[in-house]
Amino acid sequence: MKIKKVLILASIIPLSSCGGDVLNRNVMAFGTVNSLHLYSGSEEDLDNLESIINKIDKLTDNYKERDVLNVTKINQTNEDVQIDPDLYEILKVGDELSKDIAPFSIYCGGLAKLWKESLNNQQIPDESSRNAEVEKIKNTSLEFKEGNVVRRLGEGEIDLGSLAKGYALDKCYSYLKEHQIANYYLSMGSSSNLLGDKTYSGAEEFEVEIKKSNWRLKLHNCYISTSGISEQSVTIDGVIYSHIVNPNTGKATPIYSTVLVVSDNGLIGDALSTAFMLSSLDNIKALEEKYSVKSLVLSGNDNVVYSHPDLNLFKAK
Amino acid sequence: MDKKKLRNDIILIASLLVATLVALIIVLLSKTNKNLVANVYVRNEIVLRIDLDKSNDQHFEVDGINGKVHIHVKDGAIAVVESNCPHQDCVHMGYVSETNRPIICAYNQVSIVIEGGLESNTVVVG
After folding, report:
1. To the nearest whole angstrom, how far is the Cα of A207 from the nearest Cα of chain B?
2. Whole-model pTM?
């Protein structure tokens, strides 16, 4: 009898575990490919996640006006503006982080554009222009009022590029949790990532490969935020300049080649990965503790400058 | 034990095992017989859809925003083989056939994303 029950169970289990297909969608937003991989759920879930991503992309765009009241509009005025609750939230958190994390600011849009334009012409912006932008950053803040109303104080330009993808992932995570979808992999241009509980094949952890590096990590149930100089840097007279600008000095010379932050909050992880690129190791460790994150810092030819002791770091075979 | 009952048990168990085997074969076949398709984007637009199974050893070229990007298909995988971008990250990706390993040339805003492929346990970040 016992053997019969075991044999019946042994044949039913494989039948019931014939897994479904991966639900895949690629969404063009934030100027890049954003890949959604759900290991359960439906096409409707992909539709809803795509809507979330597109909405955050439009709201946080500081380069052009879109069909919603977005950052570009806020940057054009110093009057009260009533905005979407999501945009209000990301601005509120961004403003707080700009005060709490150095060097980080959401008001360095003007400085970032100055560097971008100059580097596209293989030039460095002159010191007076950089200093003028730094002054604007110092003198800019946001006033938050009831009813999702904000007012920009000062002339610094808001730029949410270092937060937007992480925030979009936070909203996606809330949706997935609400709909009890536990296994997935979401990637916003590969710089902001969200790993679910298990991989498609049922493995407990994902193997995380870092671009242009032989180092690997094993992770799951977390956000991975990365900042680096590999894709958007320019070398002038032997000095590497990047898109990551220092709001305090006006310079764009990150200290490291790649920073990776593992966190339980996408927006915070993204902000910290940007700030860490410009920070001393002491500052990195202090912020790790404050925000309960773990980081990996690389420089030059794949050298590990620092790795949080709890990260499962190993070399690729 | 009653011989008739034993025979019935054996028939039941054998039937279940055969059904399981058939189901597994069907599932495996459905996963491996999917056509691999690579979507090539420039900015937000798909400019090329390449059936990787039918395009073996074919070369393609797309106009990125800063220059041409040369693509090659080999043995069901796709690669950027030449680009004028300064860092060559897209070229260093090599040949890819998995859905969760897009090839991105940020300089030219060209992306290659695969549909219908295997879902790897490895994810690429950075």
Report:
1. 5
2. 0.84
